[in-house]
């Protein structure tokens, strides 16, 4: 496995329980490649730091406005305006 393959798929390896062939190859590569090992350690530190910071409080109504905007753009199941569907037109 090459370093580029590790970089592309290393997030699959953040959960050490994964036993796929790719994860086994990544773990073997990490044993011999200091750069990729350092990269993985950095990713893990970043995730842990991110988890240690409290989430900011949203202003009142922000969640509802976000959901309405996502639905309006067809980004959620049940959205009226799905991509590729023109508003106001029905198929016959």
Residue fraction in strands: under 5%
Number of helices: 4
The helix content, as a percent range, equals 40-55%
Unreliable runs: 81-92
The coarse overall form would be: elongated
Largest sheet: none
Secondary structure: number of strands: 0
SSE class: mainly alpha
Q: End-to-end span in angstroms?
A: 53 Å
Order of helices and strands: HHHH
Look at the structure and give the mean pLDDT: 79
Question: What is Rg?
Answer: 21 Å
Describe the structure.
The protein contains 4 helices and no strands. By secondary structure, the protein is mainly alpha-helical. It has a domain at 3-52. α1 (3-9) crosses α2 and α2 packs across α3. The chain starts with a helix and ends in a 20-residue tail after the last helix.
Outline the secondary-structure elements.
Layout: H1 3-9, H2 21-32, H3 34-52, H4 62-72
Helix pairs in contact: 1-2, 2-3
């Amino acid at each position: 496995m090459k370093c580029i393959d590790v970089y592309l798929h290393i997030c699959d390896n953040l959960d050490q329980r994964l036993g796929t062939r790719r994860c086994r190859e990544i773990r073997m590569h990490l044993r011999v490649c200091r750069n990729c090992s350092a990269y993985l350690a950095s990713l893990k530190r970043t995730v842990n730091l991110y988890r240690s910071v409290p989430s900011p409080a949203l202003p009142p109504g922000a969640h509802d406005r976000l959901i309405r905007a996502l639905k309006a753009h067809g980004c959620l199941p049940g959205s009226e305006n799905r991509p590729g569907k023109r508003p106001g037109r029905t198929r016959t």
